[in-house]
Specification:
It is a single chain. It is built from no helices and 13 strands. A 5-stranded antiparallel sheet has the order 12-11-10-9-13, with no helix packed on it. 16% of the residues are buried. A hairpin with a 7-residue loop joins strand 11 and strand 12. The protein starts with 6 loop residues before the first strand and ends in a 9-residue tail after the last strand. It is mainly β. The protein is elongated.
Length: 153
């Protein structure tokens, strides 16, 4: 299975998302940060005037490859509500998880890397994606950590 690779970018200075997938801007990864070009030359190539580039101004949010129950793309940093009413944010990285067994003392504890639900009040997190079942259709995006952090309180 393949998934579409795309991002949306949070502009820390202007407090809004930049959709560089559909706008004419140059973007590159530099030292772990997304940097945006400072202009365009006569041949439509991005100009990188490093004296004007703001290294820590933009934060990338990666597309998970899934859509919520309303058909909305689900990105890293989105806040979702599950079918049972749990509110969590979507994170990419290494996470601890536990699989509970029906037999006493047979729980499996391990770590994995990928998209996961980060619950504010739980020690273990749940994998997010096709392997979690439902392919996103059981979730609804209700905000994101940049514009609606209060949803996680």
């Amino acid at each position: 299975m393949t998934r579409e690779i795309k991002y949306k970018i949070w502009d820390i200075k202007n407090l809004k998302f930049i959709d560089y997938n559909s706008h004419k801007i140059g973007a590159m990864l530099f030292d772990g940060w997304i940097v945006i070009s400072t202009g365009w030359d006569s041949e439509d190539n991005p100009i990188w005037d490093w004296s004007k580039v703001e290294i820590d101004r933009y934060l990338p949010a990666q597309f998970t490859g899934l859509k919520d129950k309303n058909g909305k793309d689900i990105y890293e940093g989105d806040i979702i509500i599950t079918g049972n009413g749990t509110i969590a944010k979507i994170v990419f990285g290494e996470f601890p998880f536990r699989i509970e067994s029906e037999e006493e003392g047979q729980d499996i504890q391990d770590k994995s890397i990928g998209f996961f639900f980060e619950h504010p009040k739980k020690e273990y997190h749940e994998p997010f994606g096709e392997c979690a079942g439902g392919g996103g259709t059981q979730y609804e995006v209700i905000g994101n950590i940049y514009e609606n952090p209060e949803l996680l309180k």
